[in-house]
Amino acid sequence: MPEFHALVPAAGFGSRMGGELPKQYLPLAGQPMIAHALDTLCASPDISTVFVVLAPGDTLFHTYDWSRFGDKLQPLFCGGERRSDTVLNGLLASELEPDDWALVHDAARPCLTQAHLARLIAELRDDMVGGILAVPVADTLKRADDLGRIAHTEERAGLWQAQTPQMFRAELLVQALQQCRTVTDEASAIEALGLHPKLVSGDSSNFKVTYPQDLLLAELLLKAKN
Fold it and tell me: What does the pLDDT profile of the chain (226 residues) look like in tens digits?
């Protein structure tokens, strides 16, 4: 029976946030930001192991107390230069079975809930390809020209905003990332193989903390969640 494992790439810095700390360690609601995603993933009864993939020179991870997660949380110090490198290195180091499911989740999406996880797993556990959490695009989208002016308005019908976790069989995801290393998410690598991942409806609360002002919204959502 295939198992479900989570993988959290956390080897980057997050330059758009500014500051001296890598983004995943910024304080948020009394914890480093990454702790909120790890709390949710480790609490899931469906997930066997949560691998957090860190930079080889990371000296901050072990300054925090992760003992509440026990052996379910496994740090891997094999992150790469790009996100895709980090995910691939983590998959290879974790030595998952080929048919096991890997759920790759951003460290900077702290508001993930058990409902999000349960819906994703329920809809994809028997899927031939796998898929991602996503939300339909609601805003009007503008294409800019080289001068920073509107070139035209994009048609938003059928457009979705990708979120995480992104859930694929371990062997398939390794194959995809080995062949396509310049992608910004795992689904893009799967698409490059000619496959079509499924879109599983999420919601806007599972947003990615990218700019300093996002921290306030995330804190409000986490307080409401608890």
Answer: 899 999 999 998 655 555 678 999 999 999 999 999 999 999 999 999 999 999 999 999 999 999 999 999 999 999 999 999 999 999 999 999 999 999 999 999 999 999 999 999 999 999 999 999 999 999 999 999 999 999 999 999 999 999 999 999 999 999 999 999 899 999 999 999 999 999 999 999 999 999 999 999 999 999 887 6
Residue 9: cis peptide before it, omega within 30 degrees of 0: no
- Contact between 72 and 52 under an 8 Å Cβ cutoff? The reply is no
Q: Which residue has the tokens 């379910």?
A: 72
pTM for the model stands at 0.94
Of 12, 13, 30, which is closest to residue 21 (Cα–Cα)?
13
Name the token pair of 4: 């479900």
CA distance 158 to 116: 21
At 21 the three-state DSSP class reads coil
CATH level 3 topology of 4-225:
Spore Coat Polysaccharide Biosynthesis Protein SpsA; Chain A (3.90.550)
- Spans of all domains in the chain: 4-225
Widest pairwise Cα distance in the chain: 55
